[in-house]
Amino acid sequence: LASRDFHPADTVINIKGVEIGGEQLVVMGGPCAVETPEQIDEIARLVKAAGGQVLRGGAFKPRTGPYSFQGVGVEGLIMMAEAGKKHGLLTITEVMTPEYVDVCAQYADILQVGTRNMQNFDLLRKLGTIQTPVLLKRGFSSTYDEFLNAAEYILAGGNPNVMLCERGIRTFETYTRNTLDLSAIPVLKQLSHLPVISDPSHGTGRRELVVPMTKASVAAGADGLIIEMHTDPDNSMTGDGVQSLFPDQFAHLLADLEKLAPLL
Length: 264
Ligand code: PEP
Ligand code: MN
Known about the structure:
By secondary structure, the protein is of the alpha/beta class. It has helices spanning 37-50, 74-87, 101-107, 121-127, 144-157, 184-191, 200-204, 207-219, 247-260; strands spanning 13-15, 18-20, 26-30, 54-56, 90-94, 110-113, 134-137, 162-166, 196-198, 224-228. The strands form 2 sheets. An 8-stranded parallel β-barrel has the order 3-4-5-6-7-8-9-10, surrounded by 6 helices. A two-stranded antiparallel ribbon has the order 1-2. Residues 32, 58, 62, 114-116, 137, 167, 199, 202 line the site of phosphoenolpyruvate. Residues 13-256 form the DAHP synthetase I/KDSA domain. GO terms for molecular function: aldehyde-lyase activity; transferase activity. One of its GO terms (biological process) is aromatic amino acid family biosynthetic process. It comes from Paenibacillus pectinilyticus.
């Protein structure tokens, strides 16, 4: 079902009038984690002002270590839904277990499956039983075939609203947190009809690389981007402040993308 052979035309996912996979480049911006109502409200205002369409923010965080901040949970879903509504943005948040799919879908417009859960088949099966759009991140050591098979689980269950997200893979290079596999963008567009989103934040792990890799992703054919932005990255509650853009960088980047997109 994920294959272009089966479905030659591009899939366009329409969420409350925002089309993902169509003509428009979609930008999802926001913090790694929802922290407080004030934080998410202010960031939502800035995402909207910059021209973004979707507010990102994790309420449930898949942290590598069990003692790290794990997210504020359902409270965070509520804070983010309010901020999205107030500022006219769609919202995307990560869901980690099948048990939380329904509550996350109640509050968010798009559900994110993180890289660590790409092959959490129970989660994928559960996401196949609803119609809420899913942004499926590529596992950091997964092949394209494994990635598309993971998408297949959701599609096979009856949810056609899946987007694929390249977020960097593990290579021998340690200077960057991951290696953003730019080739994945045109490869996935060729193999599949599903929208392809790039995550240059986790893909590089370094703020100064997010701007060029965002532009490179657009040049490679990405349908959208998911980018971390924070008003106070040095004090963010996850370690992802180092890869979060400052609001003015985010705004400049989106202005540049508006100039770049029509050229491609
Ligand atoms: C995130 O988007 O904050 C995140 C945890 O992403 P990934 O699953 O790609 O590491
Ligand atoms: Mn993050």
